[in-house]
Write the structure tokens for this entry.
Amino acid sequence: MAPRSTTIEGLGQKRRALHPLQQAFIDHDAFQCGYCTPGQICSAAGLIAEGKAKTAGRNPRTDERNICRCGAYPNIVAAIQQAMGQS
């Protein structure tokens, strides 16, 4: 059986409620064109859920698979840290 996949639309906990990462991306303006945003958020959510998102002022490895053309990496790091409770 294949692992369950969650899309960006399925991350919210309740109807009309944003996932903490979605809210953090808004709070930190962690998107420019928005092209990479779903991948960045879903990757970060997966890493956090697996306990692999440990940061020391660096994006917890989501940038290796999701390239941000606009260079919003500092804002992405801040958003992920907020969602992890490290801001």
Remarks:
- Helices lie at 20-27, 37-49, 73-83.
- The chain has a mean pLDDT of 80.
- Residues 37-49 form the longest helix (13 residues).
- The radius of gyration is 12 Å.
